[in-house]
Amino acid sequence: MFRNILLKNVIKHQLRINKIHTNPAWNIPKGYDTGIKVYNCVTKQKEPLILKNKDIVTWYTCGPTVYDSSHVGHACCYVKLDIIQRILRNYFKFNLVTAVNITDIDDKIIGRAQELNVEYHVLAEKFEKEFWDDCKHLGIEEPSVVLRVTENISLIINFIKKLVETNQAYKAADNSIYFNVETVKNYAKLQNIGTQEVTKKLGHVKKSVLDFALWKSLKQEGEPFWDSPWGRGRPGWHIECSALASQIFGSNIDIHAGGIDLRFPHHENEEAQSCAFHNTPQWVNYWLHTGHLHLNNAEKMSKSLKNTISIQDMLNNVSSESFRMSCVMSPYQSNMEYSEELMITAENTYKTFKNCLISCDEYKRGYLKASINKNVLYGLINKSNDNIHNALCDNFDTPTVIKTLSELVSATNIMLHTSASLDTESDLAPVLAVKNFISNTLGIFGLNADNKTAESKNLSEIVDLLSEFRQDIRNIGITDKNKNILQICDSVRDNAKKCGIKIKDHGRLSSWSM
Fold first, then answer.
1. Least confident stretch, 300-309, 354-363, 435-444
2. Architecture of the structural domain at 2-315
3. What percent of the chain has pLDDT over 70?
4. How many Cα atoms occupy the beta-carbon half-sphere of 474 within 13 Å?
5. Where in the chain is the domain with CATH 3.40.50.620?
6. β-strands 56-61, 95-102: how paired?
7. Strands 32-40 and 45-51
8. Start and end residues for every CATH 1.10.730 domain found in the chain
9. What CA–CA distance (Å, rounded) separates 139 from 128?
10. Given this model, what pLDDT does residue 8 score?
11. Which range, of 271-275, 320-324, 449-453, averages the lowest pLDDT?
């Protein structure tokens, strides 16, 4: 009998969900039309990106649960989101306010800490630091604000308290607090969940199979906990993002992003409880989801499948620029296959762009005598500019941008490597215009193909080497009391100062600063 009641409950929810999806619950925001269209998982089509505040974008990204090293699948997600943010910031010139959470308390963190016999917070701090180091090596820009769960427990408790007081959440037999999905009329608007997914959630504690934990009661002594009006325990996963994001952005967010695996149940539950808390039909205006990263055998890369490649291991074999290029070459929504072939293709594509810039410099210096058709080059730049603008306005279509740049590079290379007579007049302006266009376009995505600028990243290491070499030579001069050697060292110091590098001698040691 009890089983029949549960099955009827499942059918009831499924019928209601199906009804919802015949009329998607999404309201087009009021505000400023950006001219950009983005894919909307609620309406299942591209919709105009409208901002509630002109030229300002509020953006929340689900951060990592820090119980282990981040893998290449995480890198793919965060690099792709970084690329979109750079497009909005660098190309469309929007003012982005971004927030990322760090889940530093969770069942996985507790379990891993017990396994390694360390305190949970020590484990979380270790892997959070590793995550941010990985982001730095991948060229991912830092968010405007970072929100850690353990630093905002009281905020989360107050969020849950309001849901309980308004009868949208309840205390169950296991002393945990659950959100009452029945109070939300448009639950499952982000992803149509079938009966199979629903039946996985069958249980005997909750009012509904779809209800989810907001506050988890303490299971056993020794686990980390916080006091609350409902007893000792800790927050559920979904409530964390809602409370933290609401603290920064309030009752409405322009964009909420994450991997496609978060769309259900995490993002679905975030939207449901946040709409309930703020008494609004729509908390997030646009959900952006990146596709999975697959291995050669089309298997999703995940820690649960034990098939991951850490970001650190990947960067030992692949440059961060090549990996970023592979992400630019793939639609952000699509699944991406991580393979040696893909990385080689991405590296070669990037090298082709860099080599074209080098050829432009060689033409400028007179090393190449080429036959340049300036009208053709200017025409190609204008056409490329229009194509790239249209592509970026069309759901951030970066693969089309790369295709357009490749065509421009191919045409430019043909001209640059077509010999001309020695007395041919140089057409430098269109060549430099091409160079600027390629460099600036790649720069939008965080790709720095200009060799001079790339070399400047290693300037400190180069100056270190030169300073140490000068120091060794100078010490020989001091030991031998050789005035000529010391004079040469002083000359190097004086000339370095003209380049903006200040060298100070401290006895037999030297230091430098810019």
1. 300-309
2. 3-Layer(aba) Sandwich (3.40)
3. 88
4. 21
5. 2-315
6. parallel
7. antiparallel
8. 341-454
9. 17
10. 44
11. 449-453
Using CA atoms, how far apart are residues 172 and 389, in angstroms rounded to an integer?
A: 53
Contact 230, 169 (CB under 8 A): no
Q: Is the pLDDT of residue 355 over 60?
A: yes
The 3 state secondary structure assigned to 187-256 is CCCCCCCCHHHHHCCCCCCCCCCCCEEEEEECCCCCCCCECCCCCCEEECHHHHHHHHHHHHHCCCEEEE
Average pLDDT over residues 430-459: 83
Tell whether the model's pLDDT for residue 423 goes beyond 70.
no
Residue 455 and residue 444: Cα distance in Å, rounded?
Answer: 19
Side chain identity at 274, as an amino acid letter?
A: S
Kindly state the DSSP code that residue 264 receives in the 8-state scheme: I
**Which residues, 6 or more positions from 148, have their beta carbon under 8 angstroms from its beta carbon?**
101, 102, 104, 128
Give the span between the Cα atoms of 9 and 387, in whole angstroms. 52
As given in the structure block, the two tokens for residue 325 are 């290029």
Residue with tokens 């970001």: 311
254: tokens are 């322009």
Domain at 341-454: CATH architecture: Orthogonal Bundle (1.10)
